[in-house]
């Protein structure tokens, strides 16, 4: 869990509970990844979690999905690779700075940073407060689910 950031008196009377009645400004440099920047614990968010994630050079995650959590990814720097299965084959997405990605709930995927020298920095927004990461042995196609 991240340490609470007290921004312009954003904490309640107990000094811990985020107040829910004001905008929050998290300045550049106040969040160093991996960190929850906007969450229930840091600013009192109820339905939104955002964080900064730094993937080191020559790294890869295991195959996984995020359960019921939906995620949006914004690539700040680096050239990450994202993999998923379309039912016929493994699909590779090459992303770069300024790109956005959408990761639907329950879709197995994997992220990689193939660069041997530079980290990948991304901002992630998700629909759950707690991180959900369920490892799976291989990528597979998620059967169609109804749109919400």
Q: Can you characterise this structure?
A:
The chain is mainly beta. The chain has one helix at 40-43; strands spanning 35-38, 49-55, 59-60, 64-65, 71-77, 81-85, 90-94, 100-103, 110-113, 120-126, 134-135. It has a 5-stranded antiparallel sheet with strand order 1-2-10-5-8. A 4-stranded antiparallel sheet has the order 3-9-6-7, with no helix packed on it. The relative contact order is 0.22. The model is unreliable at 1-8 (pLDDT under 50).
List keywords for this structure.
single chain; disordered N terminus; 4-stranded antiparallel sheet; 5-stranded antiparallel sheet; 148 residues; 11 strands; globular; mainly beta; 33% strand
Write the SSE topology.
Blueprint: E1 35-38, H1 40-43, E2 49-55, E3 59-60, E4 64-65, E5 71-77, E6 81-85, E7 90-94, E8 100-103, E9 110-113, E10 120-126, E11 134-135
Radius of gyration, taken over Cα atoms and rounded to an integer in Å? 17 Å
* CA distance, first residue to last residue: 29 Å
Structural class: mainly beta
Count of helix runs: 1
Q: Would you count the extended β strands for me?
A: 11
Read across the widest sheet, the strand sequence of neighbours is: 1-2-10-5-8
What integer is the average pLDDT? 84
SSE sequence, one letter per element: EHEEEEEEEEEE
- As a percent range, the share of helical residues equals under 10%
The oligomeric state of the chains shown is single chain
| Global outline | globular
How large is the share of residues in beta strands?
A: 25-35%
List unreliable stretches of 5+ residues.
Answer: 1-8
Which sheet architecture does the biggest sheet show?
5 strands, antiparallel
